[in-house]
Amino acid sequence: MKKKNNRRKTRSLCEPLKIKEKKSNIKKEYTKLVGRYTDVPENFITAGSYHILSSLLGRFFETKAIPNPLKPGKGTRPNVWFIFSSIPGRTRRSTILGYNTEIYKKVLYEIFKDKKIVDDTILEEGTIEGITDQINYVIEIDDNTCFDIINSEMGPMLQRATGAGYEKGIIGLLSKLYYGEGWKQFLSKRNKKEKESVRRIPVGLYVTMLSSMQEPDEYLDETMILQGFLRRVMVVYIQTKDLSMADWKPPIDEERKKITPELENIIRKIIDLYKKYKDIYDKDGEIQILIQPEVKNKINNFAKELDEKLTGMDSNIIDIFQQSFWEHLVKLCMLESISRSDIINKGGKATLEVTIEDYQKAKKYTDEILKMNLATVDKILTSRKDKIESNNLKRVYNAIYSSGKAGIQHSALYRKMNMPSNKLKEIIEELERREKIKITTGPMTKPGIPPKIYIAKKLV
Asked: What pLDDT is stored for residue 9 in this prediction?
């Protein structure tokens, strides 16, 4: 019998040492770093990490699992839109916006070598015409340029956009930018060349968002849900009840200075990945992201669950609002896959796959954001109801006050207010409770109950 050689095989001195490349995970590194040096709420940090992946690397990827109806043969790209919302100060919204803006600019400064072009890809606010002209100015220089909406005062801008001022119509434009729908504004042709008579944004633009505002009910309304803008955005809403002093860090801390060089390390890794993915993109087009069958089934079940909410008689605006969350989930799954940067060769093409682990991480965050967004919508609707009630109280009181010292009979007030009798009864009771009016009775003109007369107490 031949004796078995149990000696360990040794590597020849001439044989090169094979070291397995350590892959980066940008999301993991970013969240760990910012969490270590700051007391920014975890959900803000996670959104910040997704935004970095989406705005800088997502432009090179697509999934044909969801075809793009605007560009036949193309798929969905992972552009995500986040708006941070909270009380001012304590939640450090500006900290994340500051870090992300710095990373975004430094990466692209290295790529484009033209700081002005990079700065102009950040859309903050302006008129429809101004934003359109800025976009066209940039894409004339580089038609593959993508854009990022970064605005620390998104609330006031949205508030102005719903009024009659110079930013009216911006919300409709933003809704189109999310899907890359393209946009046209027809101008007067008088004394103008044919090509100058239309202001346009091309189809297929890739636009991301990271913005912030204070409490949502101050700036958002029901129309933004029905019109579609709020269904494109994930509002990361941190309430005071979500905060804890256990996570607090002192504002004056020498340790915090260490974050700057460590952020530089992340920036360098993103630059390397950007160049790597751009080389693939320039050669073969968008890098495909495949979604594993098990993940597809889970996403489809989630979408079905959301759609079922709109099939019954009890469906409402909150159910409408939730419809787009399956799409948010898909994009977050794609970003989880991009973060792992585990490129494989499939059929001769560079490819990424969304694994069940990617899905689980993305679904966990989607569920948390959905919960926050439902709280946001509830606050918007409650605030709207309160405003309506307040306006109705003022209307009824003013009608009574304008009737003078003689007051106004109930029947006359009912005809004047043109509102349901039970609603008018509630308002009258509230005005009496607040001691704003005095209720008396007038002379009987026919048999029955004497008519009620309402008089403003200021006039009594």
From this structure: 45
In this prediction, residue 165 has a pLDDT band, given cuts at 50, 70 and 90, of low
The upper half-sphere exposure of residue 79, i.e. CA atoms within 13 Å in the direction of its Cβ, equals: 22
Q: Which of 130-144, 211-225, 287-301 has the highest mean pLDDT?
A: 287-301
Asked which of 286, 308, 335 is the last residue of a domain, the reply is 286
Token pair listed for 326: 């399956």
Distance CA 83, CA 88 (A): 14
Instruction: Please name the amino acid found at residue 360.
Output: Q
Compute and round to an integer the Cα radius of gyration of the chain. Answer: 29
Residue 148 · residue 104 · CB < 8 Å: yes
State the DSSP code for 162.
T
Which among 253, 286, 319 is the end of a domain? 286
Is residue 351 in a domain? no
From CA 363, how far away is CA 303, in angstroms rounded? 12
Distance of CA 366 to CAs 47, 83, 135, 277, 331, Å? Answer: 11, 14, 31, 27, 10
Strands across the sheet containing 408-409: 408-409, 452-456, 437-441
